[in-house]
């Protein structure tokens, strides 16, 4: 059966950190070309409907840890803290795979970006699942440790903000519409990227709760990947809508 190889965890986590810096350098000035940042002259070739694309992209992040858990012999049932942490990761991706795609009203998604998204989800799903299922060692009272409890609260807060912000974004469009409107309500009152802010908070909460290098590397990747996107969304809104609230920040309330 599979065994824990600490060197593998370190190598994969380090590579994830390097990928985060690469993402930041590539998209700090130029956004990823999908959604509202899509080149208007591009022909709509090689695309999938948004619902299908999001389902396929996020599915490996749910399936890979689930398969690792199923293949472990004997099953990893203790300690409770480790089981809860693995469930948190799978819970997020259950929502992103089986719930979120069926309500999204986004534009068709480029196949090239879908391919790289799936590769990343396989990679990160393996790293987080492998570490938690085969390598992580937590004391039996980890559930009462301040790192676990504070991280869990941040994770739940971030997930709540993310889901609520997604709901507000969906309500902006009627079925069949593809135009962009100014988001209103919730944390959108203060920031342009409320949904991104929620996801960043969520994964930093997960990193604190697990207190592990793989989770911190993933939180850093999330910040470097969707942080710039939130910034470009903010600039898009300011440029497109003359009545866009000038008091809103790009990503973090009262800071940026």
TrEMBL record:
The chain crosses the membrane at residues 109-134, 146-165, 203-226. It catalyses: a 3-oxo-5alpha-steroid + NADP(+) = a 3-oxo-Delta(4)-steroid + NADPH + H(+); 17beta-hydroxy-5alpha-androstan-3-one + NADP(+) = testosterone + NADPH + H(+); 5alpha-pregnane-3,20-dione + NADP(+) = progesterone + NADPH + H(+). It comes from the Eukaryota. Converts testosterone (T) into 5-alpha-dihydrotestosterone (DHT) and progesterone or corticosterone into their corresponding 5-alpha-3-oxosteroids. It plays a central role in sexual differentiation and androgen physiology. Belongs to the steroid 5-alpha reductase family. Residues 108-256 form the 3-oxo-5-alpha-steroid 4-dehydrogenase C-terminal domain. The gene is Srd5a2. It is found in: Endoplasmic reticulum membrane; Microsome membrane. GO terms for cellular component: endoplasmic reticulum membrane. It holds the Pfam family Steroid_dh. InterPro entries: 3-oxo-5-alpha-steroid_4-DH, 3-oxo-5_a-steroid_4-DH_C, SRD5A/TECR. This is 3-oxo-5-alpha-steroid 4-dehydrogenase 2. It is an enzyme of class 1 (oxidoreductase). GO terms for molecular function: 3-oxo-5-alpha-steroid 4-dehydrogenase (NADP+) activity. PANTHER family: 3-OXO-5-ALPHA-STEROID 4-DEHYDROGENASE, 3-OXO-5-ALPHA-STEROID 4-DEHYDROGENASE 2. The keyword Endoplasmic reticulum applies. GO terms for biological process: androgen biosynthetic process; cell differentiation; sex differentiation. Keywords: Differentiation, Endoplasmic reticulum, Lipid metabolism, Membrane, Microsome, NADP, Oxidoreductase, Sexual differentiation, Transmembrane, Transmembrane helix. Its EC number is 1.3.1.22. It is a multi-pass membrane protein. The keyword Transmembrane helix applies.
């Amino acid at each position: 059966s599979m065994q824990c190889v600490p060197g593998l965890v370190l190598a994969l986590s380090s590579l994830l950190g390097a990928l985060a810096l690469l993402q930041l350098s590539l998209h700090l000035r130029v956004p990823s070309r999908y959604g509202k940042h899509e080149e208007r002259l591009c022909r709509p070739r090689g695309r999938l409907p948004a619902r299908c694309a999001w389902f396929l992209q996020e599915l490996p992040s749910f399936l890979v840890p689930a398969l690792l858990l199923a293949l472990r012999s004997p099953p990893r049932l203790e300690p409770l803290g480790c089981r809860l942490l693995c469930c948190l990761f799978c819970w997020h991706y259950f929502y992103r795979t089986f719930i979120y795609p069926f309500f999204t009203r986004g534009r068709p998604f480029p196949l090239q970006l879908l391919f790289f998204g799936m590769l990343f989800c396989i990679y990160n799903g393996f790293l987080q699942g492998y570490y938690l299922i085969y390598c992580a060692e937590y004391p039996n009272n980890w559930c009462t440790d301040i790192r676990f409890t504070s991280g869990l609260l941040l994770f739940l807060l971030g997930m709540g903000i993310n889901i609520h912000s997604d709901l507000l974004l969906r309500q902006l469009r009627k079925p069949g519409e593809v135009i962009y409107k100014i988001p209103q309500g919730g944390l959108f009152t203060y920031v342009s990227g409320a949904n991104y802010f929620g996801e960043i908070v969520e994964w930093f909460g997960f990193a604190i709760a697990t207190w592990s290098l793989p989770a911190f590397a993933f939180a850093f990747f999330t910040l470097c990947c969707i942080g710039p996107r939130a910034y470009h969304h903010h600039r898009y809104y300011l440029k497109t809508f003359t009545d866009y609230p000038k008091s809103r920040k790009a990503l973090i309330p009262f800071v940026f």
